[in-house]
Amino acid sequence: MDDKYSQTVERLFERHRSVQTAGFSSDAYKPGLGQMFDYAAFLGDPQLRWRGVHVAGTNGKGSVCSMLAAALAACGLRTGLYTSPHLVDFRERIKVLQPLPGAEMISEAEVCDFLEWYDREGLSFFEVTTGMAFKWFADRGVDVAVIETGLGGRLDSTNIITPLISIITSIGLDHCALLGNTRAEIAAEKAGIFKPGVPALVWGRDPETLPVFESAAAAVGCPLYFAEDFPVPEGFPPLDLAGPCQDINLRTVLAALAILQDSNGTVALNPGVCEAIASAARITGLRGRWEQVLDKPLTICDIAHNPPALAVNMERLTALCKAEKRPLLIVFGAMADKDEDSVATILPQEAEYFLVQPSTPRAMRTGDLALKLKRNCFSVQPSVAAGVQAALERAKLLPDPIIYIGGSTYVVSEAISYLESI
Asked: What is the pLDDT of residue 26?
């Protein structure tokens, strides 16, 4: 990473504060699409020069986007992939698969050039980043781009596209202050990505959200599909995305591909496409989804950070430790705006905890986190690196333990950076 690129990205974060670092303050979060439409026009409306797949949802968006991008590339399509946030390098957000075998990130020089010529005052960080991705995809001549929403859907900067299909992966309680206090209210915000005549795909017929999705689809005049109606073909290869919810994400991807095949014939589910889906993490470089970062001791990183996602992870983790009679060490940190009171009821009692504070103003202080968790079986560490180091030292004294690192994307990001530096 050269100095010019590092300095340019640093200035980007300073000039356009991001929700990830500054929270949902007035200058970091700019709801509404008018400013994004204006910015896109300034860039030459690049979103009109490729076809899109739009993905929203509370959990599973990144995995679904990565599997879809790998599948579309395996069909011979030059495929853009726009996801957020990044874990190690800002460029992870913007990639092209052209087509397989792998993904190419936007180059450091291209990031610098874009910000030199096309940056504008008054935009949010996500608006600038979205404009950068959309223009780069157009300049690279992609056939299709898989676009992940940043927050919600209706007012998200990415919602200026008219895609081939609109996908909602799951609905859970997260970012409630902005999206609503019930799953139905949040579903309504996510359903804001539905477009007239464009197939809409959601996971299942949940009693709380089903009426919302049916009403939203009827209001804009689009067909509505449910991923639970699409089975996984017998003998489908195992996924390299090993998280507990990947079976649901896989069925969502297979449903999307089936709908796309029926609607425009751009894709076909053949053995090559199946293998690409199964290898999506390797192909796209997706990280932090039940990722095994060390063998000894077995160390798993996962970016799950809200109660629904953490509940699934903790259930799997507890079952694994119990079945194999292995002790569990958890390195855990959180953002100050997260519902850690609910998380406290999810985290297993029979684990040792190393509470950490990631390096961002939004991080919950370790003392506050300790009070919320109300456990006696943890130590408080000043940083993620210190927490990971303490957990590894403790692991040396235990018989074949499992270490889980998570609670926040920032915790996973800092942990991976630290582990890869030692």
From this structure: 47
**Averaged pLDDT, 41-67:** 96
What CATH code is assigned to 3-284? 3.40.1190.10
Task: Tell which residue, 361, 346, 351, 419, has the closest CA to residue 387.
Answer: 419
Helix (H) or strand (E) run with residue 402 in it: strand 402-406
Residue 341 confidence (pLDDT): 82
Q: How far is the C-alpha of 277 from the C-alpha of 236, rounded, in Å?
A: 10
State both tokens at 230: 């699409």
How high is the pLDDT of residue 27?
Answer: 57
* Residue 1 confidence class, pLDDT cut points 50, 70, 90: low
Of 45-49, 165-169, 237-241, 340-344, which range is least confident? 340-344
List the helix and strand counts (H, then E) for the chain.
17, 14
Give CA–CA dist 144/137, Å, rounded. 9
Sign of CA dihedral 216, 71, 307, 228: positive
pTM for the model stands at 0.92
Find the helix or strand (DSSP H, E) in which 414 lies.
Answer: helix 409-419
DSSP string over 64-112:
HHHHHHHHHHHTT--EEEE----SS-GGGGEEEE-SSS-EEEPPHHHHH
pLDDT tens track for 222-253: 999 999 999 999 999 999 998 778 999 999 99
Q: In what order do the strands lie in the sheet with 94-97?
A: 103-105, 94-97, 79-82, 144-148, 51-56, 165-168, 200-202, 224-226
Beta strand pairing status for 79-82 and 144-148? parallel
User: Where are the domains positioned within the chain?
Assistant: 3-284, 291-419
Tell me the average pLDDT of the chain: 91
136, 154, 155, 211 from 264: Cα distances, Å: 25, 26, 28, 28
Contact 39, 16 (CB under 8 A): no
C-alpha span between 73 and 91 (Å, rounded) = 19
| 268 pLDDT more than 80 | no
CA–CA gap between residue 301 and residue 403 (Å, rounded): 9
Helix (H, G, I), strand (E, B) or coil at 10: helix
User: What's the CATH class of domain 291-419?
Assistant: alpha beta
